[in-house]
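Weekly modeling sync, notes
Attendees: S.R. (lead), two postdocs, one rotation student

Agenda item 3: backlog of single-chain predictions. S.R. asked that every request posted to the team notebook include the full sequence so nobody has to chase files. The rotation student volunteered to paste the first one in as an example of the format we agreed on. Action items at the bottom.

Example entry:
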Amino acid sequence: MTRPNAKREILKTDLKNAWIKAVLKQHRFLVSKLGLEKRLQERLDSFIVLFESDSAWGYYHAQEEKIGLNLRLFENCPWVTIVGVLGHEIAHQASHLLAPAAFATENPHGATFQSFFKRLDLDPIFGRPAIDEEMFRFPPNPFAPHEELDPDPILAKVQKLLALATSPAPAEAESALAAASRLMAKHNIDLAQSQNPVYERWILPLGVKRTSSRTVLIASILKKYFFVEAIYIYQYDPLKNDTFQALEMIGRPVNLIMANHVYHFLNERVETLWSHHKPLAKEAGETGLGAKNAFINSLLSSFARKLNKTQSSDQSGDLPSSQLILAADKGLRDYLRHHYPDLVSASYRYRNAVSPYSQKAGAQEGQDLSIYPPVGERRGGFGGLLED
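Predicted structure, as returned to the notebook:
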């Protein structure tokens, strides 16, 4: 009979083996970008070591030609972070094996290291010399909002307008929502004139194998009205030893902050509204997941129509739609093509259950819905939601 502790050790050993296998697969992909695969071909499976430490996320040992990754990465961080740390150490490995003279004489994170790291197409945060200190100090997902960033004055103005958009007076609420839309549109037109545009990628784990209709509708709203691109990717989950979908938002930081707030607000708000409607739906004979999906899908579709109407009825007449502004952002198009050269568009169709009462109620809630301004100081005040 196997003792409980022994079972846990077996499970941990099995997970470690699975993690090493997943890292080796990612290692092969990354080194292929640097021309290292032939050099390492015979020993490719012997380069990864997992270790425990409170002071370093990873290391490259030149004499043994091994890369070490901290077990805490796999226990606490999303896969994107693990890949970033791996890429950091691969840049050291490439410097050692492909440019030994520079490796011996240059600063460890000097020009040679940076040139190799850049070719890996990973987020620049992982190329920093102080990656260990910053990664331990910041949240485990570098693509999530960080408290150390300065508040954005545009978002502060938008926040005030969103507060007015919750007014019980329909005319005042619609006017405030339109003003917030115009402000973000004008700001993005101004950003398009900048010489050195900055784009970021924020990844939102979904924890599912298949994208829900709710996520598709919210992602569509973000793309059409909040100046970001949204794509679906698959990510490995180390603790579950399985692969799940994630939503990746790509855009300028100010737009990602707003889109991130809207994404979480809509997800939480539709659940709250459904909980209020559920007893009424039951009385009408509509129960189960079918009634819930009918209500939420109808709500989000109705809210999207409301945003479209608000944008279309803008009386200023001098601003293109958010979709046209986004399409004209050549920097974003180039950024997207660089990171995803084989990206393809796919249509998604869903069919609501026959739940006319819930569908009608959801449509009304969507017309009445306003985006609440967030509370708190995180990233310019866009870090939380108002309580019901």
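Discussion: group reviewed the output briefly. The longest strand covers residues 242-251.
Action items: rotation student to repeat for the remaining queue; S.R. to check formatting next week.
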